Each structure stands twice: as structure tokens, then as C-alpha cells.
Amino acid sequence: MKLKSVLILSLLSIAHNLCLAQNWNGKKCAVVLTYDDALNVHLDKVIPALNSFNFKGTFYLIASSPVVTNRIEEWKTASEKGHELGNHTLYHPCDGSLPGRDFVGKDNDLSSYTLDRAVKEIRTANQLLKDIDGKSERTFAYPCGDLKIRDTLYYDYLKNDFVAARGVESGFLQARKVDLANVNSFVENGTTATQMIAQIEEAEKSGSFIVFLFHGVGGEHPMNIHLEEHQKLLLYLKEKEKDIWVTSMVDLGKYIQKKQS
NodB homology domain spans which residues (predicted)? Predict the structure, then answer.
């Protein structure tokens, strides 16, 4: 009887491990590479690096940024290569009433926004992005990770406009437990490839996914990782391609939607 119980437990453990191995598009985990704020380095360095490995990235664009308006054709080409042009609002408003927000100007202080203004600006950004890539499906990223205008979750009024919204809180979840209105992510600043690889390994052990949130890659932003560390991360992902699904935020969101339906 004891031997039979041990055998059953062993079979259940094997079945569980096989289930985890098939959990993310037939792979052990998913990795999403996201890049915020529409920086020149994203077009000049990051996208060529991703293209060389045939990886898709998600680039959250501030639609009014000169790096968008002055380089539209390059963003269009990036989209044609499979990269997602995500919505990071029109002017990147953050809540200036919070501690440590001295950098927030009067014109882009989310705490002084009306809900109507926020929704209109985000939808305007969506239209501008559609004019570039011709696509109707995309995801949203909260500027500064701010979810509310005073006491209101403003994304509640935009859920039909997006597949998902990326937040800034870290964590490893199974697909059915993911809140698509606030998808977890890991903010990388001064991080080494070794540290990022350890995070991926943790996601893999959990049968989960990881969304990386980058700003500068080799400069151009106070929140930055070295270009060499980014390249080492891409090399690791290529070596582990049979186990790791490197995808865009919009494709991950659609995959999770199916799992939750």
C-alpha cells in the first residue's frame, strides 16, 4: 500500500512538472522585454539587437515625444518586424502629489487631471500609434506606475481599448491569476545580466512568466542598464529558446486571456 502511494505521488509530480513545462505556449516560461519612454537608443541599439536574435520587444511610446514624431518611419519599420508599439500615453502624466515627485511638472501632473482628460489623451495616443503601425490591438503601460487619478482607477474606463496594461509591481503568477489591468513587471536599473537571468530562472521554476521593464539601455535615461548586460541577456535567451517563449506584451496578454476564459 505504501509503495502504491509513493508511486501515485511520483506520477502526480511528473504530471505537474510536465504541465509546467507546457504552460507558456509549450515552453517552461515566458519572457517579455518592454522598453519605456520612446528613447533614441531603443531605435538605434535595442531594436537592431533584438532583430539579430529574431526577438520581439514591446516599446511603450509617449506619443507626443519628438523621438516618435521625428522618427515615424523607423517605428513603422520596427512594427513591421514584429515589435509592439505600446501606449505610454500622450504626455506621460505622473501623480505629482506623491513623495519624491519633484520632477513632475504642472502640465503633466496626473493628480490635477480629470478622468475625461486622461481617457481622451490615451485614446488620442492610440490613434497616433495606429496611424504608424495600422494595428488595433496593443497594450498600455502606466506612467510612473500610477494607477489612479485621486481615488479612481482610470484604466477601468479603458479596458476595451487594450489587451492588457503593464504595471510596475514584481511577482511570479500563473496565467489564471494574472490581473490583466495591472500585469506584474520587474523594473531594471543598474541590473546585471546575471541578476536578470536569476529572475528568469525563478520564473521558470514557478512555471510563470517575467516582464522586464527597461528605460535606458546604454544611456539616455537616469534609469539605465549597460548595453553589454542587455546583450548578455539576449544571448542567454537565445541559448534557452527551446524552454523560454520570448514574446511581446500584446501576444502574452492574448495568451493569458485564452487561459482565463
Answer: 29-247
d(CA 10, CA 204): 21
Which domains are seen in the chain, by residue range? 23-260 (3.20.20.370)
What is the rounded CA–CA span in Å between residue 28 and residue 195? 19
Give bridge partners of residue 247 from the DSSP assignment.
32
pLDDT digits (tens, 9 = 90+) for 197-242: 999 999 999 999 999 999 999 999 999 999 999 999 999 999 999 9
Using DSSP, state whether 187 is helix, strand or coil: strand
CB atoms within 10 A of CB 229: 18
Give CA 45 to chain center in angstroms: 18
Tell me which residue has cell 516560461. Answer: 29
The answer to whether 143 and 111 are in contact (CB under 8 A) is: no
Q: Bridge partners of 47?
A: none
Q: Is the dihedral of CA 124, 130, 133, 138 positive or negative?
A: positive
- Indicate the helix (H) or strand (E) that contains 207: none
Each residue's pLDDT tens digit, 132-169: 999 999 999 999 999 999 999 999 999 999 999 999 99
Beta bridge partners of 212: 33, 186
How many other C-beta atoms can be found within 10 angstroms of the C-beta atom of residue 255? 18
Contact 215, 63 (CB under 8 A): no
How far is the C-alpha of 132 from the C-alpha of 126, rounded, in Å? Answer: 10
Report which of 221, 56, 73, 64 is spatially closest to residue 139, judged by C-alpha positions. Answer: 56
